[in-house]
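Schema walk-through. Below, the input block comes first and the output block second. Nothing else is stored per chain. Lengths vary across the set, and this one has 298 residues.
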Amino acid sequence: MANTTVRGAVAIHGQNPQYLVESVIRNRIYESAYWKEHCFALTAETIIDKAIELKAIGGVYGNQKPTEFLCLLLKLLQIQPEKEILLEYLQADEFKYLRALAAMYIRMTFRPVDVYEVLEPLLKDYRKLRYRGMNGYSIIHMDEFVDSLLVEERVCDLILPRITKRDVLEDLGEIGPRKSRLLDAMEGKSEHGSERSRSRSSDRSTSSLSPRRAGSASPSRSSSRGRSLSRGSRSPSSPGSRYVSRSRSHSRSASGSVYRSRSRSISPDRVNGSPTGSLGRFRSRSRSISPDRMDTTT
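--- output ---
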């Protein structure tokens, strides 16, 4: 009675669900101590506690002894829980061995379309799993285990039911294209790179415009400076200051000194009406009578 399938169980792939496990391994499970002690009278609810206590996944080890993982998998095939309960097993993120057990059962019992739709999101799970085989313990990851369920024909020493390839289902229109995280990351990176190039080009354009603006502003500054200098040179100064002219115009005084002026201006003594006796050196561009000659004439 303990090894029989529950009443009202639905045939899977045209046969008893327990027959999905090979007869040799199935008989060894029936004879194992773990099956007799811990798997008796388990239900869909109480099996969760046993799955949480698992320390490893795997097939057979040592002298063809079945692992606890295989014993609980055969118990799931025997009680045949509902689909909603299995999906709840998968959503338990904190219990990775319970998720691995549910993934193995879904791969063996669900339709190919449902297998791809349910198991492909688990490829994002990168947690470590301990695998026990004939060579002892080893470390694998959850995504590796799920990928082997989707690709390989034999997992955990069990021959899996045949499954239609994904590209065939895509051609038939039964399933959409697979969403790859790597492709999404590459597309996001390319979009980010294009935004960077656009920002760099905009920065370069603004930097190229700034010298032009500076160049356009420089003539006005230079002209203003030139005007201020010319005004300063034209303004009268105190007597005795020197006026230098670009064009060399010679005006000789009695002492023989030469006067040069940069701007055409009247000497300060004529403008201010100062006496001619207190005059210094004056240089003018125009030919004019020097102050000393004026003194000599008076």
